[in-house]
Each structure stands twice: as structure tokens, then as C-alpha cells.
Sequence to fold (678 residues):
Amino acid sequence: MGEVKIRVENIKKEFRVGENVIPILFGLDFEIMKGEFCLLIGPSGCGKSTLLHSIYGLEPPTEGKIIIDGKDIWSYSKDWRAHFRNKNIGFIPQQAFWIKSLSVIENITIPAVIAGASFHESIPKAAKLIELVGMSKWANHRPYDLSGGQQQRIALARSLLLDPQLIIADEPTGNLDHKAGDELMKLIEDINKQFGLTVVMVTHNPSQYCFGTRIINMEDGKIISNETQAKSCAIEAQAKSCMTK
Amino acid sequence: MSIISKIKNSLLDRAYRLFGKEREDIGVNMQFSVITLISWRNIAANKIRSFLTIGGVGIGIGIITFLISLGFGIQEMVIREITKNNPSNVVEVSNGSLENLITLNDETMEKIRATEGVTRVERAVNIGVKFYSNDTKIDSVLYGYTRGYMEMANVRIKEGSTNFSDTEEKVFVTPKLAQLMGYDNPADIIGKTVQYEVIISEDIINKDIAKKQEKEDIEIAGLINDDSNKNTSLYAVTMYDHLKEDFGLTGGQAGKVEVNIQADLNSIRSRIEQMGFSTESISDTVTDVNSFFNVIKIVMVVFGTIIMSISAMGMLNTLSVSLLQRTREVGILKALGAKRADVFKMFIFEAAIISFSGGILGFSMGYGAAKGANAIFNYFAKQRGEDVVNFISVPMYFVIAIVAFVAFLGFATGIMPARRASKTHALDALRYE
Fold:
């Protein structure tokens, strides 16, 4: 059995809207092993993104613990979590956001400059990563000049800059066409396999279920299944048949 | 990591160890150069908006600099002109009014000289005179000066020599007076003898030794500089001792009292006034001039404050809009691990860059415009044969005040957007539409 990368213990989350308390997550428990490609799936509003953001250290849970590499991340300060995220987790948001005034390659260096490096020091590493995602010729363009698929490739390069052992992706293909989405997924899969990174990703797209080595299926803030690779493709087939119907 | 960060970390480590606690590893902050570069790039990326904002600050600072440099310059010029012939440690003494018969005779001179702090006392007299030359009679004023008085009053001899005894019958005349005496070229009168007749009040002569006031010959020793430089003054200057010896003069109506720099000018003045004289000091005029210019400066400060308030509002507006436009940038920076302090600095630096750029631009424009105005003025002055003057001055404390003000402006306008940006929650910022 592999080493546990992420342990989620009895995570509950409620949102307060005026006088009303809206429960989103109902005591979730699961583990993600090192090197796994974990997909969080489920219908809209089931709490996938909330859970992902809690794991990433952006959304505080109402109750429970999220332990990454043995550290209960919500027991530390905001600045500690910011540093932890920066150093240990690569992040690919649903829609890539950029510092508009910087070039593509400078945007890739952002995690390093946040960690105290200069642009000059970080550019060589960023150049290697932009090559890895096949976007070298766009290095000196402005990021918003690129297509959605190209931007997500750059976001992937940015997420890898500080050699994180964990990648968190929030529906990175959500705004992409089928082809661009598949290309990105293949890139993420390659990186997962090549570097043994743990990937936790939210997706809606059943055709991507095959990429996951673990699929956590959620509904109404609860986990209805937590399956490893053996059953992933069966889930995909089931999802496809549901969609056909 | 900078030396300051290293020292800070080392001190914090010690403090945590002292209280037996484990210090959280929160990494280091972004480099100053990186934050500055991002702020600068953001300003450069929004050229028109940045240009207008920096221009707004620049115009404000420029107008203030222009007015202040003009205000200080004119004030300095006026004071320079006033004090040119009147050092501030010299008290002018006079007998005040026609009704006041007290004069600067030997006795009163001695009393003043004996006052503590007084280093020198000189006197002058002015009397009526009639010059007769080439069948022309000219009424004029004849000043009787001691050599010390001439030196203290900076009386300048234009042509001729002062190498003669104080009791000799010699006189200096203004060029205009020489012309009226029939010498078209005033210098031609030097060495010539003319007749003169003095009219001296009986109150200041010793009748026992006084000569009869009648026509006598007197040699023209030279030309005296006409203070107005317009060749309109009609007066003559002779030595006080000559009038004393020839006409039994007992005292003068005016004097100059030089006092020790460290001495209390006001107490010396009140002592002299107790003797019945009136006193004046250039410091009175300087104080009046300063008071006048202080009012002008207050008006300029009020005016400047209004202008700068408008500039500051423009700047605040720009920074607020910049924050709104960059909300998602703030979100991604925070999501990727930027700390509140880093985001705060980014916005504060942007404000600082805008205000300092505006400050430098405005100061240069304002000072340049003032210097330009001075140069144009001098160009026309030269063409009219007037002296060149410098009426532009920026005191060092004003430059320091501008730097401090610009820093304050940057901080004051930047702090609100910077705090708001630093407090923005990463997820809220990423979801911002």
C-alpha cells in the first residue's frame, strides 16, 4: 500500500447566507495516496469545488481536518498556508488568471517570485516548462493573447514551477473544447506518470474519467463512491450510458 | 534574502525559542525589486490612465513649485534689495520730526557710544544749499557725511577722489546737478570751482564760531553715484567736519549706530529712543516684508492644498479602478501563495511610483517654468537697460517638504486600495466578475 498524501477527516462545510445556514459538505472522509490521479466528480452544486478549495487551503472547513503530508493545514495560520501552497501545491484554476502586464514566461515564474526569487533567477526554469507544455514560441506574448487551451497549458507550466508533489486542478478543461481538453488531460496524465505527482482534479466530463486512478463521486455534499482505477472505466461507461439515455 | 529579513528572522527565532514555541515556517516575502517591477509594469501597461494620473499630480506639484519659487524668490529679492545698503545690525537714528529739536551733537553721540553693545556711531546732516555756476542758481540739498557714515550707508563715489582732508571745502555732486550747472558732460565739472551758499537752521549751529552764511567758493571733488540710476537726483555731498568747522555745525539730524551682532538690538533701540530720538532698523522692514510674504504663502498653501486635493482624488480614483481591474490578479497571486504584505506592497508601490513620478515631473516643470519666466523677464529688462535680477528661489526645506508630501500622498492614496487588496479573499477575487 502506498503512502498517504492527503487525508480528509470528517470534513463539514456550511455557508451562512443571512440568517440561513446552508450545509454543503456532510462529514467527508477519504485518503488520497501519493502519485494518484484523483478525480472529484459529481453534479453541479454537490460540493466538489468547495472540497477542492478546502484541500488547497483557500476555503476553511466548518469542521474536520485536512492533512497533507502529515500536516493539518487548517491548524496553521493564513501565512503558513500561503507558504505551504506556494511551496508544495501546484494550482490550475478553471479559468486561468494572469498578471496582465507580464509576459507569458514571466507569468509562469510567479510562484517562484512569490517565494522570494527574482524574475531573472526563475526564467530559465520557466523556459524549460514552457517547452514541456509545447508553448515556447508564445513565451514573450501577453497571456490573454492566447486561446483558452493554450492558457491552460501555461497554467499547467506555472503549477509545476516549484516542483510541487501535488497538483490541484479545478475543472481545468471546463472552458475548453473537446480537443484542447483532451490534449491538456494527456499532458497532466503524462506529468502525473513521469514525475509521480499526485493530482487532485475536479471534472464534469465523463470522457476524462479514464485518466483518473481514483474517482471520488459526490452527490449532495456526500461521497457516494470512492473507487480506484480498476473501476474507473466502468464508472465512465456507466456515465456515458446515462448521458446517452 | 535581504540582511534585514535575516536579522528579523533570527530575532523571531530567538523570541519563539524563548517562549518554548515552534515558529511556523511562513517563508519569505517577495523581493522589493520584483514588487516594484510588477507595479511599474502595471503603470506602463495602462499608459493613458497612468499618464493622466501622473500628469494630474505633476500639474498640482508644478503649480505649487512655480508659485512657491516665485514667492520665495521675490521675497528674497526684496529683502536683498532692502538690506543691500543696510546691514541688519545697524540702527538708523533720526530726530523724528521737525518739532523735535534734539540733534546728534557731541554729547548725545557720546551717550549712544557708551551704550553697551554699540560698536560705532556716525552722523549726517542735510541742509539747504544754493549753487551758483555759469550765471545759474540751483537750489539743492547738501548732505554732510562723516567718512564712517559714507561707508556704513554705502555711499558710492562715481568719479573723482576722496583723498582730501575732511575740513577742505570740497563737494561731490550728482551727474544731474553737474548738468544743471552747465556741464553737459558731468565729468568735466571735476576740479572746477563753483560758488555755493548754505542755509542752516540756527538750531544746529554754534553762533559763536559760525561763519556768515554767504556765497563762497567750493571745489567739485567728484561725481556721486545717483542711487536711482535714472539721472534725476539733485544733491551734493560734503564732509561733515567741513560744515562743522566752517559753519559751526553742532550736530546732525541723522545717524547710524552699529551694534554688536550678539547684542540685543531692541534694548539698544529703546535706550536711544529714551534720549528722544526715533530709531529704525532694517529688521523692521524685513519683518514687515516677511509678514506680507507669509500671508502670500498662506494663500499659496491654501491654493496648493485645493489643487493637490483634486490631484489626490484623481490618484485615489485611478488606484481604486486599478484594484477593481486587477481583482483577479490579486486572487491568483494569493491563491498561488502571495501573502497579504506582498499584495499590500504592490499597491502601495504603485501609488508611490505614481506620486513620485508626478512629484519629479511637477517639480521639474514648475521650477523650469519659473526659471523660464525669470529668463524672459531678464531678457526684456536687458533690452530696456535695466539690471538683471533673480526672483526665483526654492529653499532646501521646500524640496524636503515636497519629497515628504509626495511620500505622504502616495501612502495616503495608496493605503486604502492596498489594504482592500491585501484583505481580499483569494476565492472571492477569483470569482469576481
Q: What stands out?
A: The first strand of chain A starts at residue 4 and ends at 17. Residues 10 and 27 of chain A are 4 Å apart (CA to CA). The mean pLDDT of chain A is 87.
